[in-house]
Amino acid sequence: MSLLEKITKRTATVGIVGLGYVGLPLAVLQARTGYRVVGIDEAAEKVERVNRGDNYISDVDATELQQVVRAGRLSATQEFGALRECDVVLICVPTPLTRNKEPDISAIVKVTRELTKHLHPDLLVVLESTTYPGTTEGVLLPMLAQSGLKIGQELYLAFSPERVDPGNRSFKTHNTFKLVGGVTPACLEIARTFYEQSVVKIFPVSSPRVAEMTKVFENVFRSVNIALVNELAVLCDRMGLNVYEVIDAAATKNFGFMPFYPGPGVGGHCIPLDPYYLAWKAKEYDLHTRFIELAGEINEGMPYYVVAKLQRLLNRRGRCLNGASILVLGVTYKAEVADPRETPALKVMELLQQEGTTLAYVDPYTPAVEVAGRSYAAVPLTAQRVAQSDCALILTAHSAFDYELIVRHAPLVFDTRNGTRHVVHRKENVVLL
Ligand SMILES: NC(=O)c1ccc[n+]([C@@H]2O[C@H](COP(=O)([O-])OP(=O)(O)OC[C@H]3O[C@@H](n4cnc5c(N)ncnc54)[C@H](O)[C@@H]3O)[C@@H](O)[C@H]2O)c1
Q1: How confident is the model at residue 166, as a pLDDT?
Q2: How far apart are CA 17 and CA 24, in angstroms?
Q3: Which atom of ligand 1 sits closest to the CA of residue 43?
Q4: What is the pLDDT of residues 332-353, one digit of tens each?
C-alpha cells in the first residue's frame, strides 16, 4: 500500500516526537482520527503517564486520552527505534533560546539525528516546532538526504507550524487553519493530505521557509502590539489616564484597530522567544529587526515597572517594599493556563524578593514555585490573608479568583491585568497598571 493510501485509509502509524503542550494534544487528535500513534519523549515520567492514560496537559480532554490509550491507538516510549515502524513522523520538541537569546535548535537536531538511524522509504517527516526560516531545508533536509532516499519520491519533508493557543476554548488544532509548506510539490501533497484527515482547514504555502516565517511573524505581531500597549499604559499612568478606558474606546472603531491589553510582561513558550529567532536570522541578511528588539525591551521592562510602581504606591501609604507583605495573585503566564514557563510573575516575585518583601502567592493552577532558589507553596485565598497583606498584587487574572473578596478586604490592590473590572462595590483601594 502506498503512503498516500495508508494516510487516506488511516492505516498509517504516526510517530510524534515530544509529548508536551503541542505534542500530546496532537497525539490524541491523530489517534482519534484513526491512526495508530506512537509518542516518543525523552522524559520517562511523561511516557509512563501517557501509557497509564494519565493526562498532564490542561488542553487535553482526560477522557479522550484514556479512551485512545485503552483502545491501543496511543502508546508512548523513550525508544527512538519505534520510529522505524512509523509512516509519518511529527517533530514537536522545544525550541528555546540560549542565555544570550540566540536560537537553540539542539533538540530538533538531536531528534533528526536519531531519525536518520531509522529511515525507510515511504515516510513523511513534518517539523512542527517553531523555528527560524530555513531550518527545515537548511538543517533537516541535508541530514535526511544523506540516507540516499530520494526527497519527494521516497522521503517526504514538510514544515507545518502548530498555532495552538493554550486555554482557548473556541479554537483548537482541528479547527485552526493549518499552514503546510513542502520541500517539493510531492512533499506538500502528502503532508497536506495527511493533515486534511484531522484538520478542517489547510492553507498550503509555496515552501517550508514561508510557513516558518509566517509562524514567527504571527508571534512578532503579538509581541510588538503588546509592547505598544504596554508603552501606552506607562504613559497613561504618568498622565493620570485609565489605559483600559482608552483601549475600550479605541475598540469601538470597527475597522483598523484590534485591542491588545497591557500586563506585567509576556510569557509562555512562544511570544518571549520566537521573535528572537527571526532577529537572529535577520542579522545574516545585514538587517537589525528593530521592532523585535524594541518590543522585547519594553515587554521585558514591565516587571521592573510593576515593582517600581508598587514601591511608589506603598511609599504613599508610609510603607516601603522592604518588610512589606505582598500577596501575589496568579503566577502562570496567562489566565486559566497551568503553564509557568517564562512567566513575568516569577520575575516580579524575584525582584520583590530582592527588595526584602515577604511574599505569598495564590494560584489554583500552580501548587508550588521556585523563585531564585527559594520555594513557595500556594496558599488559599482567604479574607484574613488578603486583609493582613500590605498589597494584593494581581499578576494573572484567573477567573477562579474571588475579586469581590480581594477588593473588599485588601488595604491596597495593585491590579496589573484589570481582573477587578467586574467588581461592583467601591474600589478606591484598587490601582490599575
Ligand atoms: N506551547 C505552545 O503554546 C506552543 C504553541 C505553538 C507552537 N509551539 C512550539 O512547539 C514546540 C514544542 O513546544 P511545547 O510547548 O510542546 O514544548 P514542551 O516543553 O511542552 O514539550 C516538548 C517535549 O519534548 C520533549 N523533548 C525534548 N527534547 C527531546 C528530545 N531530544 N527527544 C525526545 N523528546 C524530547 C520534552 O521532554 C517535552 O515533553 C516549540 O517549538 C514551541 O515553540 C508551542
Answers
A1: 83
A2: 10
A3: 37
A4: 999 999 888 899 999 999 999 9
Q: Which CATH fold would you assign to the domain 222-432?
A: Rossmann fold (3.40.50)
Q: How many helices (H) and strands (E) does the chain have?
A: 15, 15
User: Ligand 1: which of 78, 93, 106 to mutate, most ligand atoms within 8 Å of CB?
Assistant: 93
Confidence of residue 284 (pLDDT cuts 50, 70, 90): very high
Q: What secondary structure letter does DSSP report for 389?
A: S
Chain center to CA of 383: 33
Cβ-based neighbour number of residue 27 at 10 Å: 31
Q: What is the pTM of this model?
A: 0.94
- The helix/strand/coil state of 226 is helix
Domain boundaries, the chain: 3-206, 222-432
CA–CA separation, 36 vs 86, rounded Å? 9
- Pocket of ligand 1 contains residue 216 by CB under 6 Å: no
Q: Which of 86, 270, 320, 391 is catalytic?
A: 270
pLDDT at 426 over 90: no
What are the cell numbers at 165? 493557543
**Number of Cβ atoms within 10 Å of the Cβ of 258:** 9
Does residue 339 have its Cβ closer than 6 Å to ligand 1?
no
CATH for 3-206 is 3.40.50.720
Beta strands of 133-265 (E only): which ranges?
Answer: 155-159, 178-182, 202-205
Ligand 1: centre distance to CA 87 (Å)? 21
The amino acid at residue 124 is L
Residue 24 and residue 99 in contact, taking contact as beta carbons nearer than 8 Å? no
- Give the position of cell 515516510: 123
Q: Average pLDDT for residues 213-220, to the nearest whole number?
A: 97
Q: How far is CA 43 from CA 17, 79, 148, 156, 309, in A?
A: 11, 11, 31, 28, 41
Q: Decide whether any atom of ligand 1 lies within 6 Å of the 212 Cβ.
A: no
Query: Taking a C-beta distance cutoff of 8 angstroms, is the pair 113, 106 a contact?
Result: no
Fold match flag (3-206 vs 222-432): yes
Say yes or no: CB of residue 172 within 6 Å of ligand 1: no
DSSP state for residue 97 in the 8-state scheme: B
Q: Is residue 398 within 8 Å of residue 335, measured between CB atoms? A: yes
Total Cβ atoms within 10 A of residue 169: 8
Give the pLDDT confidence of 235-263 residue by residue, as tens digits: 999 999 999 999 999 999 999 999 999 99
